[in-house]
Amino acid sequence: MTMIEDGMIAPLLLFLGDAPDIGWAKTASGLAQWRPEDCAGQYRLAGCQVDLGLPDMDFAAARAAGVRTLVIGIANDGGFIADSWVPHLIAALGAGLDIAAGLHERLADHTEIAAAASEAGRSLHDLRQPKRVFRPGTGKKRSGLRLLTVGTDCAVGKKYTALSLEREMRARGMAATFCPTGQTGIMITGRGIAIDSVVADFISGAAEWLSPPADRNHWHLIEGQGALLHPAYAGVTLGLVHGSQPDAMVICHEAGRTELQGYEGDFACPSLRAALDVHLAAARLTNPAVRGVGVSLNTSLLDEGAARDALKRAEDEMGLPACDPLRWGAGAIVDHLARTFPA
């Protein structure tokens, strides 16, 4: 058994519901990618279009295999508990599983689920709720170095990029700490803040707390949220940008995506240059010396040749190193960081 966060115990069964694509199941896919040793199986409803390559298990089989926690691996628009999930979640509790979620709607606030958990003597883990009180940001410069991943849209790889940078930097003996700002990162690392659940006035202060003063050559690698050129989720991004006071930014994008996910027909994805420039302009309020240091492309929808061509085009457009951190690692960006911020 492995304790992950706030009593949440592995092995885990990942609930995929009826997710139409991997973007909706990003919490489950993040756990499967970064904590595979703790993921025993997946539970899918009829119509689910996502397969993480894990064994399909019902609740009895999962419990017999030693699973302790069912994790709701869905990140739907609005973060709510769908009615169609409720009978399955109640059945999981009856089978002896705890349930963990990072949704805006709390499991403990759902009358039927809370009653079923009480009757079964099982635990509900709501990981998106901040466990401390924050104050507004001060804007005061802190020691150490900070990198913030930002994006052209939501769900383009900001978390994976920061995690990949941490892995590459630590492999080189550099001091680096991944700072989770969303429910999936919290589940992966067992720490962090779901920044979009913090009162708006206090987001910058929460970001300051998340990346505190550090040694001169220590990097806090802060997971970005939302995007400044997004009609719905720009607000959380701005507070995170100001409170993080990044020295460096990496712009993230899914290769081939031309419209904002969920807003197709109304909003196009900005160019890499436009997206990075607007984030840099906002960041200069609290760190005038901020600079762009790289491009991270999710090329999972492209074959190898097309992916390498997309990276080359991004480098030519931006004059910065570009990588797909999951496909070929983040070494090019770390090389650039080491040259730009010498120890």
From TrEMBL:
Boundaries of every D-glutamate N-acetyltransferase-like N-terminal domain copy: 45-130
Short name of any one Pfam family annotated for the protein: DUF1611_N
InterPro entries given in the database record: DgcN-like (IPR011669), DgcN-like_C (IPR035086), DgcN-like_N (IPR035402), P-loop_NTPase (IPR027417)
UniProt superkingdom: Bacteria
Span of domain D-glutamate N-acetyltransferase-like C-terminal: 137-334
UniProt-listed PANTHER family: DUF1611 DOMAIN-CONTAINING PROTEIN, GLL3100 PROTEIN
Annotated protein name in UniProt: DUF1611 domain-containing protein
Lineage of origin: Bacteria, Pseudomonadati, Pseudomonadota, Alphaproteobacteria, Sphingomonadales
